[in-house]
Design goal:
The protein is 30% helix and 14% strand. The two termini are 22 Å apart.
Length: 230
Amino acid sequence: MKILIVLTSHSQLGSTNEKTGFWIEEFASPYYVLADAGAQITIASPAGGQPPVDPKSEAPEAQSPATQRFYKDIEAIDKVAHSHKLSDMVEANFDAVFYPGGHGPLWDLATDKTSIKLIEDFYNTQKPIAFVCHAPAALVNVKAENGQPLVKGKKVTGFSNTEEEAVGLTKVVPFLLEDELNKLGGHYSKGADWSSFVQQDGLLITGQNPGSSEAVAALLLKTLKGEKTN
C-alpha cells in the first residue's frame, strides 16, 4: 500500500499574531496506524520542506501515545522536515491520500489548485480519500465528474462550529467548516465535541476532530483492503 499524506504549508493564524499549521496528533496517529500495517508513506505539502506545526498541538494536554512516539522517531521527523512539493505528486503513484488537519488547511489547501486536482484524480480513479478535523476544508472546491461539489449528497463530518467556538477562533477562520460543508450540499453530522466521530461515504472518509484521527486511518486501511466498513 502506497499512501500519500498531505500537510498544510500555512503558518499564519488569520490576522492574529499567532501561528498555526498542522496538528501533530492528526498526523502522528494516522501515520503509525498506516505504517504499522506496512504502508509505504510519502509526505507532501504545497511548499515542500518543513510544514509548519501548530504550536498548540505541542501543548502537554494535546499529546497522545502516537505523538510521544513521533517525537522519538528520527526517521519520521526527517520525512516530515523534507516533505515533497505537492506539485511533484501524481495520483498514479499511490493507492490513497490522507489529509491531517490543524487550522492551516482552511487557508491554503482549501484553494490550492494542485491539491484540488489531486483529490479529484484520486476519487475519479476509485481510490480512497481521507480527511480529519479541519482537513475537509481541502474538499470545498473539489468537484465531482458531473461538475457538482464532490461533497454534495455525501455523508461528511469535520471540525464542528461548537468546537471552533470552544477554541475561540470563530471570528478568525476564513470560514466555518461545518457551515461550508452544509452549504455545498454535504450531509454533515457530528458527534459530541472532542469525541471520536467518523463518516464514510464510499471512497470518502472524514473525521470530526483530533480524537478521530486514528479511527479515520483505521477506516482507510479497511477500505484499501476491501474489508467491510460498516
